[in-house]
Amino acid sequence: MRLGLYDDRPVLITGHRSDTVTVVDVAEASGDRFGPDPMHLWEVWDDFRAWGRDRAAWADRAKGRPVERGELGPPVPRPRQIFAIGTNYRSHAAEIGLPAVPSVFTKFATCLTGPDTTVALPSDTVDWEVELVAVIGRRAEGVPRERAWEHVAGLMVGQDLSERTGQFAADPAQFSLAKSHPGFGPTGPWLTTLDELTNPADLAIVCRRGEQELQSGHTGQMIFDVPELIAHLSAVTPLLPGDLIFTGTPSGVGHGRTPRQYLRPGDRLISTIEELGHLHQQFTAT
Predict the structure, then answer these.
(1) Staple partner for 5: which of 36, 62, 73, 267, CB 3.0–4.6 Å?
(2) Are 255 and 127 in contact (CB under 8 A)?
(3) Cβ–Cβ contacts within 10 Å for residue 38, how many?
(4) What does the angle CA 127 – CA 129 – CA 132 come to, to the nearest 5 degrees?
(5) Could you read off the pLDDT of 191-238 as tens digits, one per residue?
(6) Residue 197 confidence (pLDDT)
(7) What CATH number is associated with residue 264?
(8) Which InterPro entries is this protein grouped with (predicted)?
(9) How many CB atoms neighbour CB 119 within 10 A?
(10) Dist. CA 32–CA 20, nearest whole Å
(11) Beta bridge partners of 179
């Protein structure tokens, strides 16, 4: 199942091309059993997932319609908690240093956007970080790693855009503020449930600026994989249905390059994860 957001309503994605997707309104298809509030789904995720996987239960109730990708919103628009992980790929750690435990910060929910957006650059030091985003489907509290995948609703692509001047202006660094400017949390293009994926633990991940490849790796190269992150976080605080975990980025960020590189007005960033889809951000001056 692929779950998206259109006009602030949850939709099932039944087809997609380069610029358009075919969507089925969840509330219409379910006779208002689910939705139209997209956050309602996370309170009844197990029931919703069972209904959504049974195509016969909804295929004849609502007709799919094509919409532009740019009209899609963030699949989870108002999560209660967003966790983000720093330095979580071995290649990226080689640039910075290998962590002993996950480095955790947050992004604020108002930075979240859909997959195809235009972002105004607040400075000339904005960086890119393509990331796998895990979405929690069941409350997770003290969950052992061997049961962690049971608590994941699905996966999606994320960009953890980062304004480096503000990030490192204070000591210690202010990760959360620097990574939460308007438009700094593109997600999507839709949530993909685990049963749709060949191997959810090892997906190719790539970031390009135009034709230039900036980052490339596999999520299997994480230092702390999704189950380990869920075990680590849920040992401290409950993870709630609809919570997001930005799981870290591979090497190749602009701040780690010599000389350093950052996004400029007119740049076009494409963030792709195998089997999950891609994000497209265009950048302008403030």
Answers:
(1) 73
(2) yes
(3) 25
(4) 165
(5) 999 999 999 999 999 999 999 999 999 999 999 999 999 999 999 999
(6) 98
(7) 3.90.850.10
(8) FAH, Fumarylacetoacetase-like_C, Fumarylacetoacetase_C_sf
(9) 21
(10) 26
(11) none
